[in-house]
Structure formats: structure tokens, C-alpha cells
Request: fold
Amino acid sequence: QVQLVESGGGLVQAGGSLRLSCAASRSTGTINTMAWYRQAPGKQRELVANITRGGSTNNADSVKGRFTISRDNAKNTVYLQMNSLKPEDTAVYSCNAHVVCIDYWGKGTQVTVSS
Reply:
């Protein structure tokens, strides 16, 4: 099993930055893929970015050039650096760990971007 705890959300003005953290209960170096998802009110959950154990990353088109996912295996933590935030980035951001055939989720952290 993997427990995930997100932090770093909050209220920020448009154009600002936030860094989200996801602390895992086991070594992130043993987890195949870790990812950040988000869900805005009334919308489906969507993938924001993911990173493989080998370090390959993938970003949603809507955040390319603005968000960066990274992992620090020594700290068992995955980060999401969010720059140039827009009101449409407002959502609950959740961390995901994909281990073999099982997905684990954190409880999420709220990000609100004011215009």
C-alpha cells in the first residue's frame, strides 16, 4: 500500500505561482508512475502531469510551459510547480501513485486562482 499526502494548495492571484507537494509512505523510486490530477466543480477529473520511475514526464496541453512535475526519491516526494496560474486552474489537485495494477490517491488540496 501507499499513503499519499498533498500540501501546498491555497489562494493565489492570476499570474502567481504555487508548488504542490505529495509525500508518499514508501520510496517513490519503487513506484512506476506518479501523477497529479485535478477536478474542478462540475467537471471530470483530468490528468495534469505524470512522471515515470525513469523520470520521463508528460503534461496536459492546458498546462504545458506553465507547470512542471518532478520527484525527489530521497524525500519520497513528488512536486508540481505551477507558474502563470489562471482562474481556470482552480480545482482540487490530487496525487496519484500507480503501482503494478493499483492506483492510490491522496485526499487532495484545493487550489484557487482569483482573477
Q: What stands out?
A: The chain has a mean pLDDT of 96. Residues 62 and 107 are 23 Å apart (CA to CA).
